[in-house]
Amino acid sequence: MDHFDEEGKLIIPDKDSIKNELEKRGLIGKEDLHVTQVYCPNGHEMVMPDNAKFDGLPGIKLFLKGENKEDIVYISPFLNKRQRTGGDDFGLGDKLEVRCPVCNEKMRVIGPCDCQWNGEYVMLSLDKNPDNRNAVCFCDIWGCPKGDVRLAGEVVAEYIRDYRL
Ligand SMILES: [Zn+2]
Ligand SMILES: [Zn+2]
């Protein structure tokens, strides 16, 4: 079985300029591209050393709020591994508010997702200033695997996948 087909794969264009820009903002690695830090709109760091670990590195801590459920969820910092812990009570297709676990601020919406659930992409900012729109983005629907990476609001990398839950 093709490992990447199962997990989805983020395709980064083979351009040094884009790779350099991503690296400057803490996206490190090639096959194992991962974020080292992301920020809420108020500048709180959401990758902290005591977060749940994925392959030895701390995950991204999020507070997710559904219609009548809420949970702290950690997602893998590795962009090609769609692993997470927590959120066991959420169901496929649930629309979630993605909030900062520190200040409860909602992550900004950066655009629509074209999935069947009419989800929206929310951004995890790579900079302390979210107005720069450098971000890792993903759909706010539980179970929707879509996402991308944007620099100055422009999509520079998108997921391709055959993702199974
Ligand atoms: Zn915050
Ligand atoms: Zn979606």
Which helices and strands occur, and which strands form pairs?
Layout: H1 3-7, E1 9-11, H2 16-24, E2 27-28, E3 34-35, E4 53-54, E5 57-58, E6 60-65, E7 70-75, E8 84-85, E9 97-99, E10 109-112, E11 120-125, E12 135-139, E13 147-151, E14 154-160
Antiparallel strand pairs: 1-14, 2-3, 4-5, 6-7, 6-9, 7-8, 10-11, 11-12, 12-13, 13-14
The structure holds zinc ion (2 copies).
Can you put this structure into words, describing what you see?
This protein has one domain (3-160). It is globular and about 45 Å long. The two termini are 16 Å apart. The strands form four sheets. A six-stranded antiparallel sheet has the order 1-14-13-12-11-10. Strands 8-7-6-9 form a four-stranded antiparallel sheet, with no helix packed on it. Strands 2-3 form a two-stranded antiparallel sheet. It has two helices and 14 strands. It is mainly β. Residues 113, 115, 117, 119, 139, 141, 144, 146 line the site of one zinc ion (ZN).
In DSSP terms, counting alpha (H) and pi (I) runs of 4 or more, how many helices? 2
Q: Kindly report how far apart the N and C termini lie.
A: 16 Å
The value of Rg in angstroms is 15 Å
Question: What general outline do the C-alpha atoms trace?
Answer: globular
Largest sheet features: 6 strands, antiparallel
In terms of DSSP E residues, the strand content is 25-35%
Coarse structural class = mainly beta
